[in-house]
TrEMBL record:
Residues 43-79 form the Protein YjdM C-terminal domain. This is ORF-2 protein. Signal peptide: none annotated. InterPro entries: YjdM, YjdM_C, YjdM_N. Belongs to the YjdM family.
Length: 79
């Protein structure tokens, strides 16, 4: 029996433990009925509307840029 790869990191080194699949590389746990669509995170704005790729938003607070000392200021329109 071949085990499915990890849906988060695509590692082939997964194992089964009590009905759950576990990835030793990223520590992700899932069951066999869980689909990739269930794993996709829903990103929502401050009003609760779902955001899609390409949407334009205006920041409501300062946002630090990961890996940089730069900050994107409140009120900036970003896509």
């Amino acid at each position: 029996m071949s085990l499915p790869p990890c849906p988060q990191c695509a590692s082939e080194y997964t194992y089964e433990d009590g009905g759950q699949y576990i990835c030793p590389e990223c520590a992700h746990e899932w069951n066999e009925t869980e689909s990739a669509a269930d794993l996709a995170a829903q990103v929502r704005d401050a009003n609760g509307a779902a955001l899609q790729n390409g949407d334009t938003v205006i920041l409501i607070k300062d946002l630090k840029v990961k890996g940089s000392s730069m900050t994107i200021k409140q009120g900036t329109k970003v896509k």
